[in-house]
Amino acid sequence: MSQSQRRTITLLHFSDYHGQAPTFYAEGQLNVAGLARAIAYLRPYADDPNTLIFNGGDVMSLGHPSWSDKYYYTDWTMFNGIVDAMALGNHDATYGPRVFEQCQQGIDYPILSANTCDSQGNPLFLHDGKNYLVFEMDDLRIGVFGVGWL
Asked: Which end of the chain is least crowded, N or C, by CB within 10 Å?
């Protein structure tokens, strides 16, 4: 491949924030990190055709006020238009299938988990009949799969 044919693809990934949406104290500074800052950081990349953004899952944990089995989870929809795909994390089904399905209905990005099946052995997360995705960026194809642990 010649220098003129080279291109840069940016892959961004975040994971395991466990519902910690508010800003907090880190590295000697107040009000750093948190969900709003993460979204503000990721949003410009979402419009870049040479960037893919992935959520590695584990966005839920018991005991946080932004979600519960009464209020459901609000953060998933905040990533609409930003995240290209999300892997199923072991805490993402904490509240059971009914709440998980409600959360899933509000998102515009697919959830991946190649190894998560129902009691009959049928894969739960299929997209066009496949348990993986292929992103096409002009002449480049990037295959992505998730592996869940429940």
From this structure: N
Distance CA 60, CA 40 (A): 20
Query: pTM of the full predicted structure?
Result: 0.84
CATH 3.40.640.10 fits 3-144, yes or no: no
pLDDT at 93: 79
Q: Check residue 102 and report its DSSP letter.
A: H
Instruction: Write the secondary structure of the chain as one string of H (helix), E (strand) and C (coil).
Output: CCHHHCCCCEEEEECCCCCCCCCEEECCEEEECCHHHHHHHHHHHHCCCCEEEEECCCCCCCCCCCCCCCCCCCHHHHCCCCCCEEECCCCCCCCCHHHHHHHHHCCCCCEECCCCECCCCCECCCECCECCEEEEECCEEEEECCCCCC
Residue with tokens 């584990």: 58
